[in-house]
């Protein structure tokens, strides 16, 4: 908080006519940055350090006096307990399935929208809409309005063609969660890939066409290589968001029927079971997973970023 | 536009693909359209199978949702959401603008490293710090306090805002700023007269995107609030378990609570990609 007040004070020397010492000037340049930097470190990094420390303790909030250091026991338990291990697997399955399917659908839609046709802007707006529904509301929509076996829209439409009337969530719980997430995340992928398509070099494409390249050849040898980094970016950012998903799992299945992913498990372990140490260990595992994805993501972002900077 | 005479096979293929795009667009939008329609149906019509597309319209679902038909009023939750989203967005702007300035117009040394530090904090999942934050809030009696969410939402959106604004401020040509400085303009004048007009649309889009993310957030709100400070998404979780015939009410609630996001999202449509890709894509 004190950093906030130093900003305007430190900024004054820059504008005075006599030159202040170089060191002071360097700090004046840094000053506007400090409040944001300090704030981020305090609010995001400190709690993580605390999580890390707690993860080495056997600590149930209901028995605070029994708290003691246990080393890596919590990690061992997370990785050996069948339920917790299952949630690690669910997290991987959920993330990979949603990212892959929405990326492919997003690519198809981006290619379609890259062409000129009547009402293109309107169709684009229709396609963005699912992403702009509050996640809990979207999950409720799928759970009650679409999936409900008695009066849901899906079975309603099946009724017209005399199809079966399955109980979607009970029969295929994880698939049900994934479908709702694919619906929400396809627009995200589409937008990123569309931006990628529109940054293609038109002259190069024209030249290829003049030389007699077919649509498929243009796509395979020009478009796809150009899109590679946008595909990577979409996949990585999507993974970072979906690894953390809580809303859909919480709303559609409440973590039941084998759909509990790690974030849901962390929530449940400390909020309902009050196992602080165990929850922290699971939390640290989510972070490790995210760091692995993030390392790649940062590399892609930085290569796109360098290109932007050098182009400017 | 096109006459029959110029319709080559390629052109026909183009029309066909346009049609495919239309069909997929409608399929994607269908759940939302159905939600909107159902929200205006009576509860008995809403629960019909096969669906009652042409059923008569009523506002009962909305009356029910706003509590005039009994049940908890959503207003406190809606107001909490407005406070949390608007206040955190303002704090984000307050912190991000000077930071973005120090990373673009008057860059510090190693400014890309700083930029990437901000980005890396965004990749730290919420569950990484959830428990300590909960324990801290409990011990300082900050649980169920909307301002705790304001602080957390600020930290959640600050990295995105710094990235976006950095890229918007970097678009301001240095030559113009230099020219103004030579003409004797001081920093506040330069910021207000030269930088602001160019960067303002971007700053507005950034604010809208931060607003959306705060409005949508569930996990922090669910864990850290109770009766007093519950937000709109937490209010919605009350509909997770079925309560008899309540489909029209659920649809009305989901639609009303999503409206601010839909509005903000469409308003920021052009800059949405840039925000979502953390400024990496323009």
From TrEMBL, chain A:
Name of the protein: Sorbitol/mannitol transport system permease protein
ABC transmembrane type-1 domain span: 88-297
Family stated for the protein in its record: Belongs to the binding-protein-dependent transport system permease family.
Keywords in alphabetical order: Cell membrane, Membrane, Transmembrane, Transmembrane helix, Transport
Record-linked SUPFAM superfamilies: MetI-like
Subcellular location(s) of the protein: Cell membrane
Membrane-topology descriptor: Multi-pass membrane protein
PANTHER family the record matches: BLR7065 PROTEIN, INTEGRAL MEMBRANE SUGAR TRANSPORT PROTEIN
Record-linked Pfam families: BPD_transp_1
TM segment ranges: 33-57, 88-113, 125-145, 174-197, 230-257, 277-301
Domain of life: Bacteria
From TrEMBL, chain B:
Membrane topology (UniProt): Multi-pass membrane protein
PROSITE patterns, A to Z: ABC_TM1
Positions of transmembrane segments: 15-37, 82-103, 115-134, 146-169, 190-214, 220-239, 246-268
Alphabetical keyword list: Cell membrane, Membrane, Transmembrane, Transmembrane helix, Transport
Domain of life: Bacteria
InterPro entries xrefs: BP-dep_ABC_trans_perm (IPR050901), MetI-like (IPR000515), MetI-like_sf (IPR035906)
Subcellular location: Cell membrane
Domain called ABC transmembrane type-1: residue spans: 78-268
CDD domains the UniProt entry points to: TM_PBP2
Chief place of localization: membrane
Any matching Pfam family: BPD_transp_1
Family: Belongs to the binding-protein-dependent transport system permease family.
Name by which UniProt lists this protein: Sorbitol/mannitol transport system permease protein
């Amino acid at each position: 908080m004190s950093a906030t007040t130093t900003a305007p004070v430190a900024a004054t020397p820059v504008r005075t006519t006599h030159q202040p010492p170089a060191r002071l000037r360097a700090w004046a340049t840094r000053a506007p940055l400090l409040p944001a930097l300090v704030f981020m470190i305090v609010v995001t990094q400190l709690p993580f350090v605390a999580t890390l420390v707690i993860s080495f303790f056997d600590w149930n909030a209901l028995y605070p006096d029994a708290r003691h250091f246990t080393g890596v026991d919590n990690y061992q338990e997370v990785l050996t307990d069948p339920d917790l291990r299952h949630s690690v697997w669910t997290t991987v399955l959920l993330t990979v399935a949603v990212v892959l399917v929405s990326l492919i659908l997003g690519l198809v839609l981006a290619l379609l929208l890259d062409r000129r046709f009547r009402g293109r802007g309107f169709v684009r707006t229709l396609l963005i809409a699912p992403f702009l529904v509050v996640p809990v509301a979207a999950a409720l929509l799928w759970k009650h309005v679409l999936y409900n076996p008695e009066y849901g829209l899906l079975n309603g439409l099946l009724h017209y063609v005399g199809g079966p009337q399955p109980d979607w969530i009970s029969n295929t719980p994880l698939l049900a969660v994934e479908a709702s997430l694919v619906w929400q995340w396809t627009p995200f992928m589409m937008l990123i890939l569309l931006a990628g398509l529109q940054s293609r070099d038109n002259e190069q494409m024209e030249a290829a066409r003049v030389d007699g390249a077919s649509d498929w050849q243009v796509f395979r040898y020009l478009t796809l290589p150009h899109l590679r980094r946008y595909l990577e970016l979409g996949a990585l950012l999507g993974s970072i968001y979906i690894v953390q998903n809580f809303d859909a799992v919480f709303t559609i299945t409440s973590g039941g029927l084998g759909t509990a992913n790690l974030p849901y498990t962390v929530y449940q372990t400390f909020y309902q079971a009050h196992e602080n140490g165990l929850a922290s260990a699971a939390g640290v595992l989510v972070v490790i997973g995210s760091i692995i994805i993030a390392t790649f993501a940062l590399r892609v972002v930085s290569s796109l970023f360098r290109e932007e900077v050098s182009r400017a | 536009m096109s006459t029959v005479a110029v319709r080559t096979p390629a052109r026909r293929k183009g029309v066909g693909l346009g049609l495919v795009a239309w069909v997929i667009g409608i399929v994607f939008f269908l759940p939302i359209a159905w939600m909107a329609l159902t929200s205006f149906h009576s509860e008995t019509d809403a629960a019909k199978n096969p669906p009652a597309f042409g059923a008569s319209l009523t506002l009962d679902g909305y009356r029910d949702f706003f509590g005039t038909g009994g049940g908890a009023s959503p207003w406190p939750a809606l107001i909490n959401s407005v406070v949390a989203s608007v206040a955190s967005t303002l704090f984000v702007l307050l912190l991000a603008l000077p930071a973005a300035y120090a990373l673009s117009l008057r860059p510090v040394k190693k400014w890309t490293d700083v930029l990437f530090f901000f980005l890396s904090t965004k990749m730290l999942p919420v569950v990484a710090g959830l428990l300590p934050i909960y324990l801290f809030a409990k011990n300082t009696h900050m649980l169920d306090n909307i301002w705790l969410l304001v602080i957390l939402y600020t930290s959640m959106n600050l990295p995105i805002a710094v990235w976006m604004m950095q890229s918007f401020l970097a678009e301001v040509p240095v030559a113009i700023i230099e020219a103004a400085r030579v003409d004797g303009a001081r920093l506040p004048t330069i910021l207000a007269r030269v930088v602001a007009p160019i960067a303002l649309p971007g700053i507005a889009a950034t604010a809208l995107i931060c607003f959306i993310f705060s409005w949508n957030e569930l996990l922090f709100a669910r864990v850290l609030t109770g009766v007093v400070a519950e937000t709109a998404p937490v209010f919605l979780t009350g509909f997770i378990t079925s309560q008899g015939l309540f489909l029209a009410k659920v649809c009305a609630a989901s639609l009303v609570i999503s409206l601010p996001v839909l509005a903000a999202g469409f308003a920021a449509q052009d800059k949405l990609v840039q925000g979502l890709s953390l400024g990496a894509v323009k």
